[in-house]
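Hi C.,

You asked whether I'd gotten around to modeling the 314-residue construct. I have! Everything is below, sequence then structure, no commentary in between.
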Amino acid sequence: MPDKIKTNVLIIGSGPAGYTAAIYAARANLQPHLVAGLEPGGQMTITTDVENYPGFGDVIQGPWLMEQMKEQAKNVGTIIYDDLITEVDFRSNPFITKSDSGLIFESRTIIISTGAQARWLNIESEKKYKGFGISACATCDGFFFKNKEVAVIGGGNSAVEEALFLSKLVSKVTLVHRRDSLRAEKILQERLFNNPKIEVLWNKKVKEFIGTKNPNALKKIKLEDTQNKSESEVLVSGAFIAIGHDPATSLFKNKIEMDEDNYIITKPDSTSTNIKGVFAAGDVKDKIYRQAVTAAGLGCMAALEAEKYLSEKN
């Protein structure tokens, strides 16, 4: 028979939201259980230098920060499983969830913090320079390219917003788009076209990222014209992939209310979902900010709301 675990709070997913929720829930004596998922620590574990998380005078490393959060959560009483939730049932309370290793959780509340992943181009050279010139977050990493030339890949709202943000820091932004028109909102396009530091390359797709070894550093991008297949190069120190994010919500499809992009919908100024006792925190519900510090704040909110829910239910 598989092990059955009864808990007040089950946290699905780790990262800043999950670990912060665990810390607050444990300190409220709720004895939370956290299932870390496929990527314990979330996107922060593939981030190198972190300079914008409050409380640290020096640059820190993303994996180190997540390890510290994990240890803090454990030290205050969270039980953490290096496992993956594969099945959820929200139809009755306590909620029933099953893990890949065969564990069955009966939980009075659930906090979903499974996060989101940036979409990548998935070409071989991209992997080589990811974290060494290639990023998916201008707000996180733009500062490292101050007064340098960078490229943004994409043509939607995210790409234009990234380009506009970067233009305040860098000497030049080259927006690379595979079509001859942008999908971004017209007001954003107007700002983009009126910005003297931004150049748009139309009908171009990335063929290869090229740089140096020891140390790894991006130096240029080889482009291919989508119409005539001609090749060209653009010299850059950084490249920001801005072709969207995908929330990790496939597990909850048709079981909880989501928007058209599959982000979990929560009530205004709350982490409460349409299912009483189920809360969502971090990038799984936040499609705007997507920062470690905002995810942590939402994790705190979710734990406090779970505590209030349990108190009122009792």
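If it helps when you're writing up: Residues 181 and 277 are 45 Å apart (CA to CA).

Thanks,
B.
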